[in-house]
Amino acid sequence: MRVISYRLMHHTNLLTPKTCLQSLSQLALAIVLALCLRSATIAQIQTPQPQFRIESQVYSGDGPAPVSENVTLFDNGIVYDFQLTGNGNATPSEIVIFDERKRELTLLDVNRKIAWTVADLRLLKMVDQLRREAVNNDRASFLVNEPFTETNDWSSDHVLLESNSFRYMLTGKRPTNESILPRYYEFLDQFTRLSASDPKRLPPFPRLMLNKTIKSHGWIPTEVQVQVKPNSFFKEAFSATSKHVLVMSLSEADRERIKFARKCWMEFESANLVEYRQIPAASKRVAFNSKDDLPATTAQRR
User: Fold this and answer.
1) Is 46 exposed, middle or buried (0-12, 13-18, 19+ CB in 10 A)?
2) Domains of the chain: which residue ranges?
3) Are strands 78-84 and 68-75 parallel, antiparallel or unpaired?
4) 225 near 238, Cβ under 8 Å?
5) Inter-CA distances, 124 with 39, 108, 141, 193, 267, Å
6) DSSP-assigned states of every residue in the chain
7) What is the per-residue pLDDT across 23-33, written as a single tens digit (0 to 9) for each?
8) What's CA 29's distance to the chain center, in Å?
9) What's the predicted TM-score (pTM) here?
10) By the 8 A CB rule, do 218 and 174 touch?
């Protein structure tokens, strides 16, 4: 207490009318600067993010009609992906919601009216667990270890990404508003990682390599052709093509989709992963022994 009192007295004795005015001026300036900085920060936080839509269609082989369609809506802080059947039915079979603020993904099964939510950190752990298990499995290690080579054709905006088992031909372009790219790339990776939670789907590692190429070019894809060569998972080769259209606005129909998604989000019953993915008891472990039993993590997936 004596030390504090001494310091206060010492500084008081040094004050003069001139120094008082200088101190007050400096204090006022500091307050104004702080208020300006706070206002700028608040304005930056409250500034609406660009809203946009990406329409995707997937074709199997040389088929003329899409086998599946996705409509992905980027609203303020939330991404909504609607999985359509491709037969003209506007009702989605599944909706994936990515809450950018909470860092959570929620999957909604529209037919069964159930929902599964996973934090992005947990999803990363699931992917890492699957990676380590694949590396130690002779039948699946190529999914992680197989190197890719990239060939660029700048004259036609084509990129070829190829390994012994996979061949991706990518076409894309930079969006006019490049500020949308970080959000798009974040969701692209999150959506790709979700395959680590589904034993019926190919693990995400080859597709994550393609995502890396997409990001390095600063593109949003317009078309992706994929050819899977015969390997330890697939005895026969197959191919597919996805086509993508970027629209820098949301329509009234998109707003109705978002309302529907939010209603499902609020009303659907929560389920665990085994219930949501309908994973048989025998598949709760990682099993690389047949094409129909693709990798699934162990306890991380429950």
Assistant:
1) exposed
2) 2-46, 52-301
3) antiparallel
4) no
5) 36, 20, 19, 8, 27
6) -HHHHHHHHHHHHH--HHHHHHHHHHHHHHHHHHHHHHHHHHHHHHSPPPPEEEEEEEEETT-SS-SEEEEEEEETTEEEEEEE-SSS--S-SEEEEEETTTTEEEEEETTTTEEEEEEHHHHHHHHHHHHHHHHT-TTTTHHHH---EEEEETTTTEEEEE-SSEEEEEEEE--SSGGGHHHHHHHHHHHHHGGGG-TTS--SHHHHHHHHHHHHHT-EEEEEEEEE---SS-SS-EEEEEEEEEESS--HHHHHHHHHHHHHHHHSEE--HHHHHT--GGGSS---SSTTS----SGGG-
7) 445 444 444 44
8) 43
9) 0.78
10) yes
Burial of 35 (0-12, 13-18, 19+ CB in 10 A): exposed
Residue 124 backbone phi and psi in degrees, to 5: -60, -40
Across the strands, what pairs with 162? 149, 167
Find the length of the chain: 302
Look over the chain and give the mean of its residue pLDDT values, rounded to a whole number. Answer: 82
Q: What is the pLDDT of residues 229-267, one digit of tens each?
A: 998 888 899 999 999 999 999 999 999 999 999 999 999
Which residues lie across from 240 on neighbouring strands?
60, 226
State mean pLDDT over 90-95: 90
Q: What tokens were used for 210?
A: 């393609």
Query: Distance between CA 52 and CA 176 in Å, rounded?
Result: 12
Which distant-in-sequence residues (6+ apart) come within 8 Å of 300 by Cβ?
122, 125, 126, 129
